[in-house]
Amino acid sequence: MTDRKKQILLAAQKLIRENGYMAASMRDLAKQLQMEAPSLYNHIESKEEILSDICFDMADRFVTAMQEVNDIYFNADQKLTTAIRNHISILTENLDASHVFLHEWKNLNEPMLGRFKTMRDQYEEGFRVILQTGIDEGIFEENDVKFAALTILSSLNWIVEWYKPDGSMTPNQIAEKLTSFILTGLKIRNINF
Amino acid sequence: MTDRKKQILLAAQKLIRENGYMAASMRDLAKQLQMEAPSLYNHIESKEEILSDICFDMADRFVTAMQEVNDIYFNADQKLTTAIRNHISILTENLDASHVFLHEWKNLNEPMLGRFKTMRDQYEEGFRVILQTGIDEGIFEENDVKFAALTILSSLNWIVEWYKPDGSMTPNQIAEKLTSFILTGLKIRNINF
DNA sequence: CCTACCGATCGGTAGG
DNA sequence: CCTACCGATCGGTAGG
């Protein structure tokens, strides 16, 4: 990939996050790069190629991180803690692209749409396997793994809606707090539900 | 509000959820209602009025539900459980409108945008107050209330991304599982983090 | 509720 | 990388 194309994708991530894919125009994108809209097409095939490149680049990051977790660690608790920390790292280091990955992929057309969904599910399956392993090991209580994975990922993914790089919490602090919350909840004292 | 306008808003919710606000065209909306686009303007002022009506109708539902929770219950645990159940009820009974409320409000312009953010924050403040009350009562462990409220709401709001009315879980079952998860987490057995 | 139409803007191409 | 331009579509108005 050429440097110029990387610049285009970087500017596009920001623009798409701010305006949504449909409302992010090629003319606005060109203006950000101080060029004319038709010149963009010397570097890219189409608007959808931009969306597709961003979505699959992020999908690759997540899937690769999950593979590393499974390669390095043995215990489910270590795997879960590390997977959460990795997920938050990728999100916070790529806030614009993360928004595209989480919400704008719906604008993809086939066959890219199907391939994207497959990768996304492959990544989520990684979390389900970790949880099931932890239950089998007796580390986690028996629970609905599918539901738990969904709930964990939802609290992780919402970070992009409120995280500010210059805010009071670092990504590692967020990971620590969130991991603690996921493992023990509000730590209720009187069980009377 | 006239019946015809209600029909327009209902069709618009669905269309906006499916395509995003910017990409949902007045011509498509008109087609859904078997009329011509200019005829819509006999019932509405502008496209933005549609967005605004949907967003504030949902905001009203959430804020009203939170007021009822505080009117009826005294204990923080009951308040939290009920607030979660109410939130999930509103989401699952208005899936299309919920998506607009959660994601498309960004397309509002001032002064509606500011008013919307105020109502949204008022509602979230309701959760923070419940959590703080629970801590003061000694029911919940000391924690970062702002962070906990955000995490709870994120796991609630993600429901609209995967919930299907004909799926295997009812809204009440989701509320039960989620409440349990929020209160006790994965219930780890060996604390070694 | 319609037809006819406005100016603006869209993604993208031709040709250099 | 540009100018010039294409057909399509946008939100909305005029007038009936």
Offer a few descriptive terms.
DNA-binding, mainly alpha, homodimer, 193 residues, 10 helices
Order of helices and strands of chain A: HHHHHHHHHH
Quaternary structure of the protein: homodimer
Mean pLDDT of chain A: 94
Main β-sheet description of chain A? none
> C-alpha Rg of chain A, in Å?
19 Å
Largest interface: A-B, 45 and 45 residues
Structural class of chain A: mainly alpha
Give helix % range of chain A: over 70%
Distance between the termini of chain A: 57 Å
Unreliable stretches of chain A (pLDDT < 50, length at least 5) are none
What portion of the residues of chain A fall into strands of 2 or more residues? under 5%
- Indicate the overall shape of chain A: elongated
Number of helices of chain A: 10
Q: How many extended strands of chain A?
A: 0
Quick summary of this structure?
The structure is a homodimer of 193-residue chains. With 193 residues, chain A is an all-alpha fold.
Detailed description of the structure:
Two copies of one chain form a homodimer. Chain A has 193 residues and is an all-alpha fold. In chain A, 71% of the residues lie in helices and 0% in strands. In chain A, helix 1 crosses helix 4 (47-72), helix 1 packs across helix 6 (95-103) and helix 7 packs across helix 8 (145-157). The longest helix of chain A is centred in the first third of the chain and has 26 residues, at 47-72. In chain A, 37% of the residues are buried. The mean pLDDT of chain A is 94. The first copy, chain A, binds a DNA duplex (16 and 16 nucleotides) through helix 3.
